[in-house]
Amino acid sequence: VQLQASGGGLVQAGGSLRLSCQASGRNFDRYIMAWFRQAPGKAQEFVAAISWQGASTEYQDSVKGRFSISRDNAKNMVYLQMGSLKPEDTAVYSCAGGRLRALSSSARDYSTWGEGTLVTVSS
User: Residue 97 is inside which H or E element, if any?
Assistant: First the structure.
């Protein structure tokens, strides 16, 4: 599976944005999918993950209630709906996939990564 993220841009604080991740290849529905982000000068951090059929999700505490991860296996797509955005959400967001047995917040568990998309939240 290869991944390509899109949908980033400039948004005002309090606004919303939806990121998309297009997967190409076979067996997409066998991959746990996740979003990570890296802010300028900071380490990469986990944002959200979703199970194979979308029944289970996991979020970083700072985005709970504001962000929602979803997937459409028929279209090989994963989405990150972001709301109530804050300046501290500014980062490059990357989608990742892995043939895992369970959801994981550890970047090292994911074998496939797409190029990131920049989200900038202005105050």
Answer: strand 91-98
C-beta atoms surrounding 112 within 10 Å: 16
With contact defined as beta carbons under 8 Å apart, do 36 and 44 qualify? yes
pLDDT in tens, the chain (123 residues): 899 999 999 999 999 999 999 999 899 999 999 999 999 999 999 999 999 999 999 999 999 999 999 999 999 999 999 999 999 999 999 999 999 999 999 999 999 999 999 999 999
Give the span between the Cα atoms of 119 and 123, in whole angstroms. 13
Bridge partners (DSSP) listed for residue 16: none
* Tokens encoding 46: 């986990």
Residue 68 CA, distance from chain mean position: 9
Please tell me the distance from the alpha carbon of residue 89 to that of residue 93, in angstroms, as a whole number.
Answer: 10
- Cβ pair 77, 22 in contact under 8 A: yes
